[in-house]
Records
---
Amino acid sequence: MNRIAAAQIRDGESRRDPVLKWLLLPFRLAFKLWFFLVFVVSMVTLYLPFKFLLYREERYRAAFKLKRIWGFFLQWVSLVPQRTEWRGPLPEPPYVIVANHSSYIDIVHMFNLIPDYFLMMGKYELQRWPLFRIFFKGMDIAVNRGSHNEAAKAFRRAAAALDRGDCVALFPEGTIPLDVPRMKPFKDGAFRMAVEKQVPIVPVTFTNHWRLFGDPEDLLSRGHPGIARAVVHPSVPTLGLTEADVITLRKQVFALIEGPLLEYEA
């Protein structure tokens, strides 16, 4: 399935969307309210344990384990269990995890996928979310792409984490595209950092998250229970690469991540 054929499928769907949206609205609304209820109640329940673990840096790994337990709970209770296709093994840490970003459940399932301790790099706006922002006060890394200096500081923190032997996970698109599942062009930061530190990149494709959980603020957007599917690709080595190879590396990883999306559309 090429890009044109995939686009034709999406265009056909868009013509039916106005009718389908209204027919499916009660079910989508019920599902989103259920997901929101499960997320908020579980987050409130875990807030104090997380706050205790995140108070000191030496407890961050314990906080990561609690995040994985929380992610396992969320995937089943919110009715979007993860099924993963492993096309290659994970390398030894440290490494950089890059994935397409098509839904808010991407973050939840990242913790269900990767067992090795990693720091999550997320958009600066996440610090404004009540409860959730505690993760970005010290452990995880918020990236303010509106400020070159602040973004550079965030990537320096991520580079220091790689130096310590920790992994880093991020979405190189920077945000959820308006026309998912089409991906936005990747930014260079993740690939420049991986080359600088000579650590491998682990590409991840979330193939259908965009169908399962659309924009939570748009009650007419997609949302329904189902299997959340992901593909973990073989790691891409950067040993021996230089600054001159960053663009080629970025394009290579983009093609790897995009491949299962085109297969899924077919």
---
Amino acid sequence: MKKKKITSYQLCLAAMAAGLNVAGGQLALMLRLPVYLDSIGTIFTGAFLGPWFGMVPSLLSGIIMGVTTDIYSLYFAPVGMVTGFMAGVVWRKMSLEKGASFLKGRLWLLALAVAVPGTLVSSVICAAVFGGITSSGSAVLVQLLARTPLGMTASIFVVQIVTDYLDRAVSMAAAAYMLKILPFALKEKWRGDWGHGSAEGTLQQNYRKE
């Protein structure tokens, strides 16, 4: 079996995706948006190069933001890594089954499949490490719900799943649009050996057929 090699183009793609995460996160924070926008690059990479490579951008952006602007980003980097992994898994599975048309009317389902595992990981980290108190404005609501039979972890999950789901839906739509408009020659350079049998490769073939 031929071993896949990571090329310089793919390293540049991972760095660009991490930068996109940082820029999106800062924009959402500055405009006080109800979504985070810090996983667009992660989801794009996961959908494009597969689940394992999809974990890299969030690790990089988590470190960058953690040591520069928001220390919480460093602790929650595993959440983005899970998101990137799930984006690669789910995107590939659905594209193989449904072809290029799987995005039409199925984006919300895809966003749910990507959001739930990341929210579970985020809830555990938030409860175990921070006691439910973070830089998020929803921390007050979490503390109120934690006094109910739900408990801390379940309260965090209930509060976060709505915003996480909306954020993943927006990010999935943005990633799908990027995959659609990028020149094929550039995608071929980025893809390299990782693209053979990938979701994006399958999508490209299906788009040609359609």
